[in-house]
Every structure is written in C-alpha cells, then in structure tokens.
Amino acid sequence: MEHYEVIEKSLLYIENNLQQPLSLESVSNSFNMSKYYFHRLFSAIMGCSLNQYTLSRRLNASVQYIQNENLSLTEIAYQLNFGTPSSFTRAFKSQYGIAPSYLRKNGRTIALEDIPPVIKRPIKNINGDIVADFTLTNFKTTRISGVAFEVDLARSDFKEKIRSYSRMLVNSIDETISSPCYIIYSNCQPNSTKLRL
Quick one: pLDDT band at residue 195, thresholds 50, 70, 90? Predict the structure, then answer.
C-alpha cells in the first residue's frame, strides 16, 4: 500500500471512530505500523499532528450534533471524547470563535468541513525524518487592494473610524480594480505591537 493510501484510510478510520479514544498507538496499530513512523508520515503528508487533526474532526462533528441533535452540550463533549465539557468549550471557542452554547442558542450555522483530500506527493526520508516532496508552483500575479490601520477598540467611536476607512476604500475603487478588497485593522493599545506593513 502506498504511503498516501495509508493516510487516506487513516482519515476514514478516524472519521468512523470519533466517539472512541483515538491515540497515535491505536490508529497506527490499525495499519500495522510503528507509532513513531506513522506519526512522522501523518505529519509530513497532512501538515499537522494526528492529535491536532483528530481534534479538528471532533469539533467538526460537534457542530452537526449541536445544530441537528437533541443531545446536551455535556453529552456531546463526552460522546466525542473531549474529556470534560469545559475542555470541549475551550477547544470549540478556539476553533470557531464562539461558544457551543451560543451556536445552539442563536441558531447560527457553521458549515461542516469534508474530510480533506490527501495530496499525492513523493515522500523522502532525510536523516530519519519523513518529509513530503513539495513542488513550488508559480502563480500569476494577483492584485489585492485594501487599507490597513490601527484603531483603539476601547474608544466609543471605534466603529465610526472603521466605517470611515471602509468608505474611503469603497470611494477609491474604480473599474480598474477587479480583485478582492480588504480592510485590516489592529487593536491599538498601550505597549501593544504596532501594525506594520
């Protein structure tokens, strides 16, 4: 079996076993591989550790439970092996920027992520480390327009400052701009790192 096929099968295995404890050892044993070799292979091909990947897939599954099921948030946390409801809430807020209770209460929707495709790249073994052979590709030049500025979010008029910069950007757009436009602002507080472009 090719390396990328092992990882493709492991992604399906993880998806079908999100309600089980998924350790590096248990997943690698399913493919009769050393956990150390499997860890290096998985990280090289997927660009993240098995634990990081499993956490992201559990969070993805939790969205579906929150939006479509009648399970309590505590039941969801235990069913998806988060250990405790508080660790589930922390991980969810870190991933999606809102608490799971807010998602359920306000009826917002979060799009579910499909299992990511495994890109078939050659693998190299360099001094015991497994690395994917990445090929650099040149893309055509893209023009991105926008404005970047600092704003003190503690001031009562910070929204007006953001709006004024937005208006300035919109007013300067003409028919020659056919690419995305962005507004980037940084919270400017005493002793904070200044926004530099």
Answer: very low
Total structural domains within the chain:
2
The number of CA neighbours under 13 Å toward the Cβ of 185 is 17
Pair of tokens at residue 28: 């690698």
Is 87 within 8 Å of 100 (Cβ atoms)?
no
Same domain for 32 and 113, yes or no, is yes
Average pLDDT, whole number, for the chain? 81
Tokens of 169: 């950007």
Nearest of 103, 104, 31, 2 to residue 39 by alpha carbon: 31
- Is residue 7 a contact partner of residue 118, using CB atoms and an 8 Å limit? yes
Dihedral angle sign, alpha carbons of residues 50, 53, 54, 55: positive
CATH number at residue 115: 1.10.10.60
Query: Confidence class of residue 141 from pLDDT cuts 50, 70 and 90?
Result: low
What is the rounded average pLDDT of the residues 51-72?
A: 91
